[in-house]
Design a protein that fits this description.
- The complex is a heterodimer of chains A (about 300) and B (about 130).
- By secondary structure, chain A is an alpha/beta fold.
- Chain A is built from 6 helices and 17 strands.
- In chain A, strands 14-15-16-13-9-12-11-10-17 form a 9-stranded mixed beta sheet. In chain A, strands 2-3-4-1-5-8-7-6 form an 8-stranded mixed beta sheet.
- In chain A, a hairpin with a 5-residue loop joins strand 15 and strand 16.
- The longest helix of chain A has 14 residues.
- Chain A is globular and about 50 Å long.
- Chain B starts with about 20 loop residues before the first strand and ends with a helix.
- Chain B has 3 helices and 7 strands, in the order ββαββαβββα.
- The chains are: A alpha/beta (about 300), B alpha+beta (about 130).
- Chains A and B meet through helix 6 of A and helix 3 of B.
Chain lengths: ~300, ~130
């Protein structure tokens, strides 16, 4: 097997201010499937092309933002191996028992130097509503709304980006397809544990633990256009796009959920391999890196987070 | 209340999706800038459509949905209602002092407001000060 250890982003848990509005947004508009609602108020969702029980968790709260971002491992042995490495690196581990989220095995949790809670887990039930595996159709039921296939990645904002890079690359075996280096240090890093151009990214920011956006994968540029039409029709708060990122080369729209968490619909992007060199952007060109056609960073990119 | 013919006009005609005939004046404190906002319409929606003029203290546009806090304002006079705003940006105490997010702010009379954006750096310093 070529990919071992950590496989991909598995779970994100977001805080939302109004659950009904959030469900309309994520299920009817973005097109995720509703999996269930538990007694504590949390709602579980998945993309139509995802095999496992859930990938997105919404928690009702009085502030917006991100509670946790979790990576799925191939086996419990891998999780145990990473636990040892993380403890040796000096981060404290919290055990989350199996069943804390439905259909999900035990998780380990820790807070990285940017202030974000990251988790690892190996076991999650397969969904009864996953993609077909015997002589499959492209999809079982025609996708809804923006036709999001899966939860794809997150961009997080916080301090100590250099330490975050060290931790993810040395302790968790991520590699780094792309970065932005300014004269006063690293502004941003794009990292992957697979061969997607990014599984997680970070931008240097004063406040710890912030969410810039959570991204959903669409099939192609024409689905990005369809998503833009839905945003116009349903008065969804749009930030930037449709456009392209120079960094990752993905095609994109940034927009906001009804609680102000930024979402992205994203497609394309290059294939990244561990033995590829890192692409580096400097301060004079970073505008084209972030928004390829506009060629400039807008103020909202650096200040609007939850 | 002010009469509609004293208002700024803008492309697209009069305000508001679902607003009533009732229009209120939203004035930016310490400036000549004012705009009309229909009852039942978000203050930020009107500011976003109308306020792109020099010399007007601007209210920033962010998520437009009560989460990111960049459109934070302080209301100095007038009656209004707000809907749910992230407590990261407007605490209960601040809400009582007239702070609000313009994207969750609906006028019930003429209002005088002032932008009250807090940068992430300031926000972190405030939090650290509160903790010590």
């Amino acid at each position: 097997m070529s990919q071992e250890g950590l496989l991909r982003p598995g779970i994100v848990q977001l805080r939302v201010l109004d659950m009904e509005e959030a469900i309309t947004h994520y299920v009817d508009r973005i097109g995720l499937d509703f999996v269930g609602k538990e007694d504590d108020g949390r709602v579980y969702l998945k993309g139509y092309d995802e095999f496992h029980h859930h990938s997105v968790v919404l928690r009702p709260a009085d502030s917006a933002g991100i509670d946790l971002f979790a990576f799925k491992a191939d086996t419990q042995e891998s999780v145990d191996m990473y636990r040892k490495r993380i403890e040796e690196y000096g981060l404290e581990i919290e055990d989350v028992p199996a069943g804390e989220q439905p259909g999900t095995g035990p998780r380990i949790a820790f807070t990285i130097p940017s202030g974000h809670r990251i988790e690892l887990f190996a076991d999650m039930d397969l969904s009864e509503n996953g993609p077909e595996t015997n002589n499959p159709y492209t999809w079982k039921n025609e996708p809804r709304g923006m036709r999001a296939q899966r939860m794809d990645h997150a961009l997080l904002y916080g301090p100590n980006i250099d330490k975050v890079e060290e931790f993810f690359t040395k302790v968790l075996d991520f590699h780094l397809p792309e970065r932005v280096d300014l004269p006063d240090g690293t502004l941003a890093i794009w990292m992957t544990v697979s061969n997607k151009a990014h599984d997680i990214a970070f931008v240097k920011h004063d406040e710890p633990g912030k969410l810039h956006h959570l991204a959903f994968y669409l099939e192609d540029w024409s689905d990005i256009g369809h998503a833009a039409d839905l945003m116009a029709r349903y008065d969804i708060s749009r930030d930037v796009g449709p456009t392209r990122h120079g960094i990752t080369r993905g095609q994109t729209i940034y927009f906001f959920d009804p609680s102000g968490n930024r979402n992205e619909v994203y497609c394309g992007g290059y294939t990244a391999y561990k033995d590829h060199p890192t692409r580096v952007w400097d301060g004079n060109h970073v505008g084209r890196g972030i928004f390829y056609y506009e060629r400039q960073l807008n103020d909202a990119f650096l200040t609007v987070v939850t | 209340m002010i009469s509609p013919n004293t208002l700024f006009t803008w492309e697209g005609g009069p305000v508001s999706d679902g607003a009533t005939d009732e229009l209120f004046e939203i004035r930016i404190r310490g400036s000549e800038c004012a705009v009309s906002c229909g009852k039942g319409e978000k203050v930020l929606s009107v500011l976003e459509r109308v306020f792109r003029m020099p010399d007007c203290p601007s209210v920033r546009i962010g998520c437009r949905n009560g989460g990111c806090g960049v459109c934070r304002v302080r209301v100095f006079s007038g009656d209004y209602v707000t809907t749910k705003m992230s407590r990261d940006h407007v605490s209960k105490e601040e809400e009582a002092e007239g702070y609000a997010l313009a994207c969750r702010l609906y006028p019930k009379s003429d209002l005088v407001i002032e932008p009250a954006f807090v940068s992430p750096k300031e926000r972190r310093q405030r939090r650290l000060t509160e903790e010590t």
